[in-house]
Design brief:
It comes from Macrosiphum euphorbiae. This is THAP-type domain-containing protein. GO terms for molecular function: DNA binding; zinc ion binding. This protein is an alpha+beta fold. It contains 6 helices and 13 strands. It has a 5-stranded antiparallel beta sheet, covered by helices on one side. Strands 1-2 form a two-stranded antiparallel sheet. β11 and β12 form a beta hairpin. The longest helix is centred in the C-terminal third of the chain and has 27 residues. 14% of the residues are buried.
């Protein structure tokens, strides 16, 4: 079934538009279904100026009629070191409460416009003037003494942080949930979370190097390999990051409870915005491998069925 935009005078989804996009090699515009929330559905119904057809649950509205801020095109995940990992979504998604308000092919009064203002460069320096005396006052300069004090405090904390300091202050670490257990050994510290489905283990050696294990298998992270912990804050961030990860279920599980994985499987899945259902338990590479395996099995079944029918 061909999906076309419900907004009048919009060409998204029709035959000419699809043919033009295919020949030029451009992607098709994203289409969104109306919300299931009755109050928000009424807002959509009132916003779209169309009288010959009634908006229904099977209708679609393309991305041209929404503000750019209302469309989520990228997923952002905050890593344990504070950096933000940005990944482009396969399918765009609307934010909660988004309502179509831009109709470029309709009269000017029916669409919402941004107030265009003359952008001017801000002055290099701002000065204060006395009303009585028109003499310029010297602009205030920010005092750097506080910044230097804070930097010195951070340096002292980093110098104090050591393996012995971690062992003595291990109880100060914030557990993401009650299943996390902390174990002290002579040469290392273990942060372990036991679960029926997956066990997570972080080992910190006496030189503050990290190793991470999921169900007894070491997981290599590109941004964590050969990293050394510098503070308790970093240890907390690492703990929360590992807690947020899901172990990849692989392609299939054999009789001996051995999980088969693809060659390029990372061993974990990051929870992303809007990602739900069984797909969230498999990494991208294992998903493709599972799909190809399922297709092979279907072909074999079809061949057997055809042979039986011929007999």
């Amino acid at each position: 079934m061909v999906k076309c935009c419900f907004v009048p005078e919009c060409t998204t989804g029709n035959y000419r538009y699809n043919k033009q996009q295919k020949t030029s090699g451009l992607r098709n515009r994203s289409l969104f279904k109306p919300p299931q929330n009755p109050s928000l559905f009424e807002k959509w119904f009132e916003a779209i100026p169309r009288k010959d057809k009634v908006l229904s649950e099977s209708s679609h509205v393309c991305e041209l009629h929404f503000k750019e801020n209302d469309i989520i095109r990228y997923d952002e995940t905050i890593l344990f070191d504070g950096t933000v990992d940005v990944v482009k979504r396969i399918r765009a998604m609307l934010r909660k409460g988004a309502v179509p308000c831009i109709f470029p092919n309709l009269p000017y009064s029916l669409t919402e416009h941004n107030n265009e203002t003359n952008n001017r460069e801000p002055p290099a320096e701002r000065f204060l003037y006395n009303k009585k005396k028109k003499s310029k006052l010297i602009p205030a300069r920010s005092d750097t003494s506080e910044m230097q004090c804070s930097e010195n405090i951070e340096e002292n904390i980093n110098q104090q942080f050591s393996f012995q300091y971690l062992k003595e202050n291990l109880n100060k670490l914030e557990k993401p949930d009650s299943k996390w257990m902390f174990e002290l050994k002579d040469d290392e510290v273990e942060l372990v979370r036991w679960n029926r489905q997956c066990s997570k283990r972080i080992t910190i050696s006496n030189d503050l190097k990290i190793k991470i294990f999921f169900s007894g298998i070491e997981i290599l992270f590109e941004h964590i390999i050969n990293t050394i912990l510098l503070s308790m804050d970093e240890t907390n961030k690492l703990l929360n990051y590992i807690h947020s990860l899901i172990e990849c279920k692989g392609i299939m599980t054999a009789e001996n409870n051995i999980t088969r994985r693809s060659i390029t499987c990372k061993g974990y899945v990051e929870i992303r915005l809007g990602q739900r259902g069984p797909k969230s338990n498999y990494c991208f590479d294992c998903r493709i491998a599972r799909r190809s395996m399922a297709n092979c099995l279907r072909r074999k079944v079809l061949k057997l069925e055809n042979k039986i029918q011929e007999k």
